[in-house]
Amino acid sequence: MSCPIESFARAGVTVEGSQRGTVILEMRGITKEFPGVRALDDVSFSVRRGSIHALCGENGAGKSTLMKVLSGVWPHGTYSGDIVFEEQTCRFATIRDSEAAGIAIIHQELALIPELSIAENIFLGNEIRQGLGIDWTETRRRAAMLLAEVGLDNDPDTPVKEIGVGKQQLVEIAKALSKNVKLLILDEPTSALNEEESAHLLDLMRKQRERGISQIMISHKLGEIAEIADDITVIRDGRTIETMHVTDHDVDEDRIIRLMVGRPLDNRFPERHPKIGDVLFEVRDWTVRHPVNTERLICKGSNIQVRSGEVVGLAGLMGAGRTELARSVFGHSYGIYERGEVLVGGRRVSTDSVPKAIAAGLAYLPEDRKTQGLNLLDDIKGQVVSAKLKKACQGGISIDWHHVRTIAQQYRQDMRIKAPSVDTPVASLSGGNMQKVVLAKWIYSDPLVLILDEPTRGIDVGAKYEIYQLIGQLAAEGMAVVVISSELPELLGITDRIYTIFEGAVTGCLPTDQADQESLMRLINPTSSRPATV
Amino acid sequence: MSVGNSQSLDHQPVNDDCQGSWHQHNPRKGQFTMRILKTITTIGVAGAMALTLAACGGNAGNAGNAGSDGASSGGSIENLKIGISLPQKTSENWVEADGFFNDTCTEQKLDCTLQFANGGVAEQQNQIDAMITSGVKVLIIGAIDGTSLGTQVEKAKDAGISVIAYDRLLLDTEAIDNYVAYDNFQVGVKQGEALLEGLAKIKGDGPYKIELVAGSNDDSNSSRFFNGAMSILQPKIDDGTLVVGSGQTQQSQAATQGWDPKNAQSRMDAILAQNYPGSEVPDGILSPNDTLARAVLTSVEQAGKEQPVVTGQDSEVESLKWIMQGKQYSTISKPTLPLVQNSIALAVKLASGEKDIKELNGIQVDEEQYNNNKKNVPSFLLEPIVATKDNAKDVYKDEPKKLEAVNSVG
Amino acid sequence: MSEQFKQLIGGNIRQLAMVAVLIAEIILFQILTGGTVLSPQNLQNVISGNAYVLILAMGMVLVIIAGHIDLSVGSVAAVVGIVLAVLTTSMGLPWWVGVLGGLLVGVLIGLWHGFWVAIVGVPAFVVTLAGMLSFRGLNQYIGKSNSIPVPEEVRTLGAGYMNFLPPIETGNWIINSPTMLLAALGAAAVVVLKLRSRAKLVAAGASVPKAWVMWVQIVFASALLIGLGWVFATGRPGTSFPIPGLIVIVLFLCYNFLARNTPLGRGVYAVGGNRTAAALTGISVRKVNFFVMFNSSVLAAIAGMVFVGRSTASTPFDGNSWELDAIASVFIGGASVWGGIGTVGGTMVGALVMAFLNNGLQLLGAGADWTQMIKGLVLLLAVAFDVLSKVQGRPSIIGLLWKPKPKPEAEQATKEA
Fold first, then answer.
1. What is the ipTM of this complex?
2. Is C340 on the interface with A (CB under 8 A)?
């Protein structure tokens, strides 16, 4: 979010309730072991009543495990240590127990049933009964009240699948509020939201704080934390490193990052000395229709050029057509192709199927590595070679697994993929390491053009830096790299040039050294009257 | 879930091949006179009343037609409406029945509706419902599942329609008039007799080692075959003339799931491996039908052993060849034509208002053997006959296809 | 100790668990039947009598890995069987015309299923359910519900023996030489492959188990092969390792290779594991779907022909609920109901677990009723065992059996992290 390092100190905490400052939750000496791994090692952690407490740490540091212990996903007895909530020692056996005590968790992956209405979802498992049946009138009335509370103006009868992710997040919160929650846990609440939705969500969190609801927030977005948190606890390698009060004035992003990664990070973006060559990748007049709503154009005659050794950013709001552009170019794997051509190294190439696009030297790292990038049932070595199996074949027929193992081993070392061996299932890797495997898979396919869609989403600071380094290296080797990102500071930090996209059309192209967040925001959201709130 | 469905869909109606092919030209008469005298009193008031009431109901429901039909007793039966509902067309015997029913109806100028329920029980229910609606006077039903047509049969009774169970008994209902079939207990008896005869003829003096094969546990006819055969064999087992080598004398042990020959073959493989080491071999094998007979013979042959005496049933073409080659000893003939003709004759009698029929073309009614859990169903049971190499040419002389098979082997 | 033991049995304990179950089952029945299970005659019966399931299951496992199901295999096999019988016995054509005709029918049905599943996009469940019904009907239509015998050559495919070399006669023993030759070739292949693999690993700088571990493995595997060969070779004179078993072994080698070592096989896993990711990785989902459906029908055709060879005739009963046997084998063999997971080798073990269970119960004279109940329970327990051992965050059952210390790899991982 916020790019310049700012002080976290905030004077304006206005609500000082009578109970403010007393402790609502205390977790003491929590230790949780999995076979062969100690995920939590004597973690202690407490939350003040009516505060927002941010939990920071790299992926795999133990944040989610800690929250699972707290919410009863890991029942009492599978961990050691005490949980004291509202002065009661709690022994939750199930999630229901923790909900009954007033603890609600909203997961990163939303747990709503898409086919059911908002009202049905809110009261799912907690239905308002009238005799044997459900009292639908009361259900709707209460749902409408809760929706007003969270600032949603949709009809409670709207099916959840018809509202966006941001609004679904709010429904989740409404659902939690319906259960008289005292402590609300939000796991990466804004990771799938756009600027506006995020801002709304943060507002809502403030409002709940004023109502006296305590909140724990897991986030990688330090800007958000800066904006909203009262206390920050940093966890690293399953241990509590430090808990800071924002009012202490000496908290800043650098310090948090240092605590999270355990070493100082001089710069969030690596130094680059680009050697830019000729135009290597060009998209001309690219026009694509929406796959369902065929009246709508999702790419409107877009033109893009990327030179060898250059890193080019694609900036735009969610749904502006960045991913759609990339995927339709990459094997026409999205939308209905209307017209336009792709040139690689000055020659027209056909990319109307994924294999053809790969053969033409294109590679596309999708925005969601778990559902689009990897076969989570496979292991590292299998995934590394999966985009160009022919290359791993002996005499064209048989995959040479010895060779594959050697190759994968090399990538694992070079890219610092943290895994016991190349036989490790990719599902057990952390987000950053998974992303490195996807990247390795595409590098193995010998691409000339690398399109990276949200390459650092949901990845911790340390791994982000490593991925930036890799991007720089690949460009230095002569590839044309396109980076799609929702985080403007990231684009400003790693690219040479930035294209802006709004409603399917390219609205501008700025050399990065002449761009700043404000100028980019104006281009990616020309209709917005309010200034960028990043 | 899916798997369960698929199983039921894929399962062949298991009883077809064991009952299907029947040959007999002279149903023997007068066998059950004694029984009838005994049971004539046990028909019961209720039964008689039911029949009377039913007839009344029929008249009330179809005053015009019924009147004329009733009057035509013994006279014109032209355009009598008969509904014939048969199971899936899965064995040649049902194909044959199809032809014979059509021929007989055309000959006698009856208005017959014949339908096969290839889609299963539900389809058969719908077909019978439709026949009732279309105003048939008599229903001849070869049920896929004898227990599942209760509703339809009751409905028919209420509409004054007579119901004949053809080849397979309708269970758990009062609303059935008669049952026409081959006597399956007798089939077993004759198989047992044939086995003893064959052993004496081919294997010399006893004692003999034998093995037993039964039909599928989910088919009630399996018990009739098995019990019929055991009524002959058990005394011989008891007196030591026969020895069951594997010791598997219970029907459940001898059962062949789904009448599937591969199950009989693999069971026989196991029995041979376990109980007949070296060149030892069973002298005889009781098999309830031809398909299973050939399966156990194949098993013995593949074990490289001498052929035993094996019984069968159904007169399948392939088995007739094996009998003529001396590989299989016997089969049972249950020709379809007499069964069809007797069913139609019975239908005509019922439609013309006859009640409490005691005799049909010389077959006396049997009111004891078949109880459908609600009542003893008056049955007309045709007697099966044994065919061996010696009498095959005679037994099949009126069935060209089978005769051809018999003659095809030197 | 447990570490060395793991190296010795190949490391992947979970996969080998079902092998252990199979061995335990064989030993149990061997004791209960007083030694009949491992007699040459009985082993020949088990192999010939279950060859069709083993063949079907090889097609089924690929279908299931790709995330589909094939309910039609039984009906397809039945149609192929009757076509083979009609072409040869009824029409008097040579046996090889019948076999080619049967294969052609399998190919055509495979194209038909592939078309609907891969090109039109109808779920395989529905397509093959339809196929199951239609081809069952076609079988009855062609055969008029009769059983029709098949020629001698086809019977050899289904239950024949190898006698192309004269037997070795020494004293009391008459030893089938082709069987021993086969066993010796198998043992030689084990030695060569092991040594070559080790050399490659060493060349690649990977760590390898100690040499004695490898040699123990080689000696054990070779002894097993030669021992089994001996049992098969010393049965009734004129018998050998059955020809249908040979067909199964050849197909197994092909499909094991295909699944593990070819881009197509990897594609099957990729599509089953994550269809979207596979598509975005340049794998043609359509091609993979077409292949698995097509292949399953072709294998069903081979299975159908082997089966009628063994039962010497095509009957209307052929293929009844075979799909269930095949599917059960696949799941016992460790495949996932959700696709993406499964191996050809595991499936073969799964099929043999069911085959020996069936055989053992028959040898003991258990009735069809008991056999079905026990088979059902074993299927349930085998899959439950597999599911429980995959539950995350809980020590696996097998893990508990061996009481492993924390894996050294995992320790290393935590250190690195």
1. 0.80
2. yes
